[in-house]
């Protein structure tokens, strides 16, 4: 998440807003945003409704068997159409900001 | 004649432990050593080879070299630690739902309204196509779903 913060200026320059979504409550998001020095928004999907609509629910994987989101990234263009998707197959393999930036550059072409 | 300490056994074992500890503490920070753990696997392989060398020496020259008891123990532990790492990386880390129903390229992104860190509602469609009079809209939105910190 910090790696995206490091590149946030480049996303801004491309007119791409970064939004991060998890089941965490707003208070926790505020705390982590402050702690990690993040400037992009952290959205709270506490009942995982949106996470379910994106089919990203990882049932029982959270603390005390809570449902959480699996990692997944989507680039949406200004018409609301998905232009790029990244769904990792391993927790060890995470998205690098450069990959998303490359996709974001394609948007303005 | 006092028998020599079997340095290979311990050096190799320390290397194996270091490989196990360094992945979550150091290698995980760099995509090059995280996405595929070549650095860790190399350290495990080297560590096991060095322990094996010490083990062979302990049995070939039992009069000159220690390690007939500690050797098999360290070798077994070394193999177990290596196995745990491989199980974790190649099996546990891949226990992720397939998400075959996730929206695909070309489809519309399901709209949502969710509270941000200040409790203020954020609506995807409004960011992309703001009502008349609102500031110029975005070229796009990058949605990052993450596991959270709880």
Characterization of the model:
The complex is a heterodimer of chains A (109) and B (150). Chain A has one domain: Glutaredoxin (3-Layer(aba) Sandwich), CATH 3.40.30. With 109 residues, chain A is an alpha+beta fold. In chain A, β1 (16-22), α3 (26-36) and β2 form a beta-alpha-beta unit. Chain A has five helices and six strands; from the N terminus they run ααβαβαββββα. Chain A is globular, with a radius of gyration of 14 Å. A two-stranded antiparallel sheet of chain B has the order 1-2. Helix content of chain B is 48%, strand content 8%. With 150 residues, chain B is mainly alpha-helical. The model of chain B has no long low-confidence stretch (mean pLDDT 91). Chain B has helices at residues 7-25, 31-34, 38-60, 70-90, 124-128, and strands spanning 113-115, 121-123, 140-145. Chain B has a domain at 7-94. Chain B is built from five helices and three strands, in the order ααααββαβ. Chain B is rod-shaped, with a radius of gyration of 27 Å. The longest helix of chain B has 23 residues, at 38-60. The chains are: A alpha+beta (109), B mainly alpha (150).
Tell me the layout of helices and strands.
The complex is a heterodimer of chains A (109) and B (150).
Chain A: H1 2-6, H2 8-13, E1 16-22, H3 26-36, E2 41-44, H4 49-53, E3 57-58, E4 68-69, E5 72-77, E6 82-86, H5 97-107
Parallel strand pairs in A: 1-2
Antiparallel strand pairs in A: 3-4, 5-6
Chain B: H1 7-25, H2 31-34, H3 38-60, H4 70-90, E1 113-115, E2 121-123, H5 124-128, E3 140-145
Antiparallel strand pairs in B: 1-2
Percent helix among the residues of chain A? 25-40%
Instruction: Kindly name the structural category of chain B.
Output: mainly alpha
End-to-end separation of chain A in angstroms reads 27 Å
CATH superfamily of chain A: Glutaredoxin
Order of helices and strands of chain A: HHEHEHEEEEH
Question: What is the CATH third-level topology name of chain A?
Answer: Glutaredoxin
Specify the CATH architecture of chain A: 3-Layer(aba) Sandwich
Q: Largest sheet of chain A, described in full?
A: 2 strands, parallel
- How many DSSP helices of chain B? 5
Q: Kindly state the number of beta strands of chain B.
A: 3
